[in-house]
Amino acid sequence: MDIHPAASAFDARAHDYEKGRPGYPQGAVRWLVEALGVHRGSTLVDVAAGTGKLTRELVPTGARILAVEPLAGMREVLGSAVPEAEVIEGTAEQLPLPDGSVDAVTVAQAFHWFKAEEALAEIHRVLVPRGRLGLIWNRRDLARPFEAELQEIMERYRAGTPSYKGAPWQAAIGATHLFGPMAEAHFTMEQELDHDHAVARVLSISFIAQLPGTEQARVTHEVEKLAGRYGDPVVMHYLTDAYWCEKVK
Question: Is 153 part of any domain?
Fold first, then answer.
């Protein structure tokens, strides 16, 4: 499967991803579920599901949930964490699903990794008429001192790794004739992390996960030192951005 090299690094850090990454604010999940019209009897596909951080929040809807994930390490954790979901190998650009077979598609923390035009065409293909696409991201609140200092540690390793902020995904959705206008809503969230979980949170980031062991050890030391100045547990503050749009024709 055609996966961005940096995204492939998640495979080896699936357990850190599960350990350190937050879920999503309940208000954001409710907003998304209501906007997508998901209910018992619906079929929903969570694309690039990772370890199921959003997938598990969708289980209470009673919908049939298909969790599509390209990386084997992530699928292993996902299957254990969310046994209610049907875990399927695949990518956003090549969904192993029939035409017009699903009511809604969600993508959490991942659309910026996709080849946007190809992914939109494929999502459009599998959705029923007027089916809906929901997107959601957590981003660290860089107005907070701990998050800002943590960003300084990590950003020197980012290079050209795709990111949610400033990515071309919004332009692609705005330009497509496959989906209607995008609605959005914004939320806040806090995550308490002991120092071990704070390190896992950082090591789960793609461009950190692909560093050589010596560099990862250096990052680990810096994160532990930083967290030590902010107490145990440290509180991570997030801004959560949620979006949805409807299939045209």
Answer: no
Copy the structure tokens of residue 70: 């390209």
Domain that holds residue 183: 5-141+162-189+239-246
What's the rounded Cα separation, in Å, for the pair 150 and 134? 29
Q: Whole-prediction pTM value?
A: 0.95
Reported as a single tens digit per residue, the pLDDT across 189-246 is 999 999 999 999 999 999 999 999 999 999 999 999 999 999 999 999 999 999 999 9
- Residue 1 CB burial class (10 angstroms; 0-12, 13-18, ≥19): exposed
Q: Is residue 148 part of a domain?
A: no
Q: Kindly write down the DSSP assignment for every residue of 130-173, as one continuous string.
A: EEEEEEEEEEE-TTSHHHHHHHHHHHTTTTT---STT-THHHHH
233 preceded by a cis bond (ω within 30 of 0)? yes
pLDDT tens digits, 98-130: 999 999 999 999 999 999 999 999 999 999 999
The whole-angstrom distance between residue 138's C-alpha and the CA centroid of its chain comes to: 8
137: tokens are 């991201």
CATH code for position 81: 3.40.50.150
